[in-house]
């Protein structure tokens, strides 16, 4: 990164990693559940010097504060507050958003809410959508819901290679860098991951919502990236996303599961093209929500009809 900004949100300090701070264009890049903004280093380099990339570390991760109140702070509703504070800090009225996994869902919620929709100029979802495979989600919750401890750094790196094989990372140097950026030493000399182990409580405390209604309500240009072997985002879910949002731009990345690292030209060039293409006319929010209700009723009727047959 080229700079680091620290944004205070109540008792929490949010670290925002910045690449190309003097660039004429700006976008937000938000990481996944147990990652941090440093994952976007290659993405920022490939995107080029005309883009200022702001990549926050969500509280409980990376360089940001850990919460004293996980049941209150490790929730999407609070992450939305954090996101708005970051936008306000950088005086961004409207900005493109690239989000991996949790970061994509956060961008989706911001783009769907009347109070914040105008802040998201266009949205790229990296291996995430309004419907996630329940088995894959349960596996994530189980893995990140317990502490991980390693006697040696090499053991941590080996576990990263096993668990994050879906990232499609190539080469020992890239894996070693991921390990260096993911490790935290414990007082007894052993190793663990960088994040607060209580971030997994999000799966317990967060309030369920109708994410398909959120998806249908979005009126900015949309792009979804799917790892071809993703255990979370199914191909039929992407097809439904495109039916609800006909202008959706789709990219499937071979050799990746959850989630592509956005670290090579074949992934970043299509994103750049999407970011620079002219935006078409979008439905106003009220009309979008009416369409959402109609769409939910229609798909429910079709599912009932198929079941009867």
Give a description of the structure.
The chain has 309 residues and is α/β, with parallel strands linked by helices. It has a single domain, classed as Rossmann fold (3-Layer(aba) Sandwich), CATH 3.40.50.1820. Helix content is 40%, strand content 18%. The chain has 12 helices and 10 strands. An 8-stranded mixed sheet has the order 1-2-4-3-5-6-9-10, with helices on both faces. Strands 7-8 form a two-stranded antiparallel sheet. Helix 10 (235-244) links the parallel strand 9 and strand 10 (249-253). Helix 6 packs across helix 7. It is globular, with a radius of gyration of 19 Å. It starts with a strand and ends with a helix.
What multimeric state do the chains show?
A: single chain
Sheet/helix structural class? alpha/beta
Shape descriptor: globular
What is the first-to-last residue Cα distance?
A: 57 Å
- Uncertain stretches: 302-309
Strand order of the largest sheet: 1-2-4-3-5-6-9-10
Q: How much of the polypeptide forms β-strand, as a percent range?
A: 15-25%
Radius of gyration: 19 Å
Number of strands: 10
CATH architecture designation:
3-Layer(aba) Sandwich
Order of SSEs, N→C?
Answer: EEEHEHHEHEHHHEEHHEHEHH
Number of domains: 1
The CATH topology, please?
A: Rossmann fold
What can be said about the biggest beta sheet? 8 strands, mixed
- The first-level CATH class is given as Alpha Beta
Residue share in helix: 40-55%
Task: Name the CATH superfamily assignment.
Answer: Alpha/Beta hydrolase fold, catalytic domain
In round numbers, the mean pLDDT is: 92
Count of DSSP-assigned helices: 12
